Structure formats: structure tokens, C-alpha cells
Amino acid sequence: MQVKNETTPRPEVAQAFFAEAHHGPMVMVNLLKFKDKATYPDGRDPDLSGRDAYNRYGAAVVACLEAVGGRVIYSGPVTGIMLGEVDELWDAVALAYYPSPQAMLQMVALPEYQAIEIHRYAGLAGQLNIRTRPAS
Q: 48 in a domain, yes or no?
């Protein structure tokens, strides 16, 4: 199995993701890999860790999720693996509930979200996003 972390979905992948027939609630599993040092386009905070930059985003994204009816279910560090094998573990995992894929689109369009996204890119080396459907 090949694993490729990314920071932005490819357009064709995003289009297929949001075109999928299920338009109900979803839980997004976020497997996160941080940069050693944050990299802001304007050069600010050169000694800040990638994890700390991403934590700025994580603290602020809660309000954006809530604005579209979503919520953080869980967020925490990855501390080990018991089953399976990967070349390198992710640094953290976060589970986010959205009432629909359209709510996710609404969230990323919010000016408040766009203002905090700089911290996500500054701290994130890559991630996997896995959509799941909550049990009925």
C-alpha cells in the first residue's frame, strides 16, 4: 500500500469527493504530519514548530466548525502503532464531524477560516483525510 500525505486535495479528487451521492453527516479522519519548523510565507516565527503553528489553526478552527453545525470529536497525538506497518507514523489524529460535505465547503469559504488557514499550511507537512459515515 502506498501512502502519500498532501496538504491540498487535487482538483479531480475534490470534485469526486463532493460529487459523491451521500450528502448526509460525515466524520473526517485527519491523519496529520507536521513540519519540524513552521514556514510562514512572510518569514514570521522562524523558531516555531510545525506542531505549534498547526495548533494555532486547530484552536481557531473549532469556531469555524461550529458555525456550520460541525464539531471536533477527538484530537490527540499518535503514540504508536499496534497493527500494520508504515514507514513513518503520523504525528496526530483529529476526528471532525460535519452535518454534510456541503457544510465542509461552507466552512472553508468562511472569511474566519481563510484567515486561519495560513497556520495550517505553515505547520503541516501533509495529511490524509478519510471520510467516514456515522452509523445510523
A: yes
| Whether the predicted pLDDT of 73 surpasses 80 | yes
Closest CA to 35 of 52, 57, 50: 50
Mean pLDDT of 49-57: 97
**Residue ranges making up the domain that contains 36:** 11-132
The count of domains in the chain is 1
